[in-house]
Design brief:
The chain contains three helices and 20 strands. The protein has 261 residues and is mostly beta strands.
């Protein structure tokens, strides 16, 4: 599409104008776009914006924005599809939430977080509280950190064999495509999960400490999901979710936690 018809104010003097001011407009389509295996990432390039930077990200279904954190604040606004966000801070406070169109999120500086695409197409706007985000607020990726740490130290820290880290990406993957089952281990308390596998098949399971479970991946079916909660009169559950992307806490620290994928 030609640009002049979209910018008629640039072609003539408007009654609302006076003098020649700098350009305060920037289209995402004018920015350099990163095409990744699981989605698309585009950042604005608007020099007059000193206090705010922004980006658009598009995730395919099952794709994950890998675990990362920033030196700046982050806001997100979902305008296509649905995403599952998870966050954990240095005090081990964590949260998992599903966000739909028109929902927003906020992450403080240093809060590690992931974003997962749930629908066929998912897109959201990100904003950061520094216009020079690319230099001062670079994202710190967990894969990048692991790749630059000796394997023997990683093995000792996580209590696993060093060979576990043989396939860690050497370069920043940024957005990861995923299509795998979720495996869970329940460390403490009680939980109940109902698994829906399509075709009117559903089953509910009760879990206690020491139990394990596997939730099949959605295989592209929008009718397949797993819901996890714990009875309100029981001890809150502490559990761990494992997938090819790694492990993360999946329980709560005293409040009910519901999760739908």
């Amino acid at each position: 599409m030609q640009l002049d018809p979209q910018n008629t104010a640039n072609l003539r003097a408007e009654s609302t104008e006076n003098g020649v001011d700098r350009n305060l407009k920037w289209g995402f389509s004018d920015s350099k776009t990163r095409l990744l295996n699981g989605g698309v990432d585009t950042h604005t390039d608007l020099p007059p914006s000193k206090n705010i930077a922004s980006a658009q990200q598009h995730l395919k279904k099952g794709a994950s924005r890998e675990l990362h954190w920033h030196r700046v604040l982050e806001w997100g606004f979902v305008y296509v599809g649905s995403v599952l966000i998870s966050a954990v801070d240095e005090y081990d406070k964590n949260q998992v939430a599903r966000l739909n169109v028109s929902d927003i999120w906020y992450f403080s500086k240093g809060v590690a977080h992931t974003i997962n695409g749930l629908e066929e197409e998912n897109e959201y706007l990100l904003t950061f509280d520094d216009g020079d985000f690319e230099s001062t607020g670079r994202a710190f990726m967990v894969d990048d950190w692991i790749a630059h740490t000796p394997k023997d130290i990683l093995a000792k820290n996580f209590g696993v064999n060093a060979s576990v880290f043989d396939n860690t990406p050497k370069t920043d993957p940024y957005i990861l495509p995923t299509n795998a089952d979720e495996w869970l281990y329940f460390h403490k308390g009680y939980a109940r999960a109902t698994v829906f596998e399509g075709g009117a098949l559903a089953r509910t399971f009760d879990f206690s400490a020491g139990d394990t479970a596997v939730f099949p991946n959605s295989s592209g079916s929008s009718n397949s999901f797993s819901a996890l909660s714990h009875p309100s009169d029981q001890e809150p559950n502490h559990s761990m979710k494992l997938s090819p992307l790694g492990a993360k806490p999946f329980g709560d620290r005293g409040s009910r936690l519901d999760r739908t994928v």
